[in-house]
Design brief:
253 residues
C-alpha cells in the first residue's frame, strides 16, 4: 500500500494495566535554574529576557522562520513581545524557561513544561524555539536533556509528551532524535493563524528513559566531539538502534 508523504509508523508498545506500586511524588517541575555545561535554563522573567529573546527570534529571515509552526508570533516590536512574556512568566502551566548560552551569554531560546499532571506523573516539553545560533548544536540538545532529566530523575515522572504540527518535519525529527516514540496524529486538532493543524504525538515512558538517558549522555560527552566541536556519532542513529524493552509484560491485560 502506498504511504502518504510524512507517514510514520506508530511505535507498537504493549498495552498495560499493571499495578503502580510506587506512584510519583506529585511535584510540579521546578522554577529553579536547570544548569548544564553549555546552557542554563532560567525561569522566564520578562524584564530580564524580553529584549534578548526578541532579538534572537526576529533579527533575520532565518530567525523569523522560527514562528512558522508556532501558534503565535512574530511580533512587531519588543514592547508587544514583552507583554506576551509577562503573561508567560506569570503562568503556572505552562512553566516557561529562557535558554541562555554559556558561550555567548545571551538568552537565545525558549521552552516550557506544559499540561502538567503531577498527580499522574505526566508532563510535556513544548513552546520550544531556538535562535539560529542555538539550532543543531550540542547546547540545544543539552537544553532539552536537562528538562527530560528533571522530569524523570528529579520528579520521578512516568511520561513525557511531545506534540507538534504534523507538517513540521524538523520538530518530528527532533522528537525521534531525543528518543520520543510516535503515538499517532490528532486530525483537525487546532486552528492556528487561520490554518488547520493536525497534531503529531510522541512520548517517552519511564521504562524507556534509562536507555534514552544513557544514549544522550554518551552523545553529549566530551569524547564524542572533535577539536572543532563536531559530533563523532549520530544521536538519531543511536536512538534508532536502541532496544525495545517490554513494559511489565507479566501484568499485561
Amino acid at each position: 500500500m502506498h504511504k502518504p508523504a510524512g507517514y510514520e509508523d506508530i511505535f507498537p508498545r504493549p498495552l498495560s494495566g499493571h499495578s503502580v506500586s510506587l506512584p510519583p511524588p506529585a511535584l510540579l517541575p521546578s522554577r529553579a535554574e536547570l544548569v548544564g555545561r553549555e546552557v542554563v535554563l532560567e525561569p522566564q522573567n520578562a524584564l530580564l529576557h524580553a529584549e534578548q529573546l526578541y532579538i534572537a527570534g526576529h533579527e533575520s529571515p532565518e530567525a523569523l522562520a522560527i514562528w512558522d509552526y508556532l501558534t503565535y508570533g512574530p511580533w512587531p516590536n519588543v514592547d508587544a513581545y514583552k507583554e506576551v512574556l509577562r503573561s508567560q512568566s506569570a503562568s503556572t502551566d505552562p512553566i516557561f524557561y529562557a535558554i541562555r548560552s554559556k558561550q555567548s551569554g545571551r538568552a537565545c531560546g525558549q521552552a516550557s513544561f506544559l499540561d502538567n499532571n503531577a498527580q499522574h506523573g505526566v508532563t510535556e516539553i513544548g513552546h520550544i524555539w531556538f535562535a539560529p545560533e542555538l539550532q543543531r548544536t550540542r547546547a540545544a540538545t543539552e537544553a532539552l536533556f536537562l528538562m527530560l532529566s528533571h522530569a524523570f530523575d528529579d520528579l520521578n515522572y512516568r511520561r513525557m509528551q511531545w506534540r507538534c504540527n504534523s507538517l513540521n518535519q524538523k520538530s518530528r525529527t527532533a522528537a525521534r532524535r531525543l528518543g520520543f516514540r510516535f503515538e499517532g496524529v490528532f486530525y483537525n486538532h487546532l486552528i492556528f493563524k487561520g490554518k488547520n493543524r493536525d497534531t503529531a504525538w510522541y512520548s517517552i515512558l519511564d521504562t524507556e528513559w534509562p536507555e534514552v538517558r544513557s544514549i544522550i549522555e554518551h552523545w553529549l560527552g566530551h569524547d564524542n566531539f572533535d577539536a572543532i566541536g563536531s559530533p563523532l556519532t549520530s544521536l538519531a542513529q543511536n536512538m534508532q538502534t536502541r532496544t525495545n524493552p517490554k513494559r511489565n509484560s507479566d501484568d499485561l491485560n
